[in-house]
Amino acid sequence: MSNLSIQEENKKTSTSIIRTQNQHLTKYFSSLTSPRTSIVHQYNSNQISKHTFDENNKQSANLINSNEKYSHELLNRISTLWFGSNVDRQQVFNLLKENQIQCTILSEFIARLAHSFSKHIIDIDDISIRKTMLYQALELSQIALKSNENCALCHFSYGHIIGVLLNINYFSLKDKLNEASLFKYHMEKTIEFDKNFYEAYAYLGRYEYTAFNLSLLERKAASILGYKIEGNLDKALEYFHIAIKGNYDMIHTVYLLMGKIYQKKKQYDEAKKYLNMCIQIPIQRKSQINIVDNAKILLKNKKIENLSFESFICHLKK
After folding, report:
1. pLDDT-based confidence at 259, cuts 50/70/90?
2. CATH number of 198-317, picked from 1.20.1260, 3.40.50, 1.10.10, 1.25.40
3. Whole-number average pLDDT of the chain
4. CA 275 to CA 302: how far, in whole Å?
5. What's the half-sphere exposure (Cβ side, CA atoms, 13 Å) at 258?
């Protein structure tokens, strides 16, 4: 594909992303940069006194008129450029280098920007374009992580993009094992800093499931290279049962894998339950279609269809 074609494709993709994401990001950023909002809410609900309200309001006004206002303008500019062309996105990195501002919300905002961008890249058919954009998102996410290593979203964004790249890159076995270890590490750090980050539990569950299904040859090869991989289906289920408390793009995959695990354990009632849940959730992304189709195929399995008979036999054995 020519450079001109790639640029045209990027423009189409960027336009689509801008329409669906800029409103959400602006709203999110406004909530972060408006200290008045929470103060007014507390005052109106009698959580703080009038004197405290007045003092906090003065402090908020000063912040908004100085660093906070500057940060707001800078990050609004960054978000606009980021959802533009490749050239625009390069300007974002230059801006971040030029503006070493001390802003507590910078790292989380940048991480959210990178993660939001990476989720939409997944649906791009052209792998070369997808990889280019993913590496840009990874670089941006790395900046956020270096700014705040105690940020759950920063770890998640970085780990998630590594995971996506693992699926489309032709890494050597050693590099793939190294990237997989990094992926797991950042997902574990995510839930360390935020116990309710349900999507991270989903990825950790999938990691355990995938590791469990590696062949003996693959395990031996990993061991030779110094990597010990031990997948655990019970651990995967433990993660998944926490993960289903949330609502996110990967939820179909979680229910599908839960169905597969219970089927492997010959707990067919549970398998059918979670496979049906996978099918019932509305499809919102192109990538979810194959997952739902997979669940439908598994439900046609004779073992699943004859659940009433299986349950009857189990009852007789008691």
Report:
1. very high
2. 1.25.40
3. 76
4. 14
5. 26
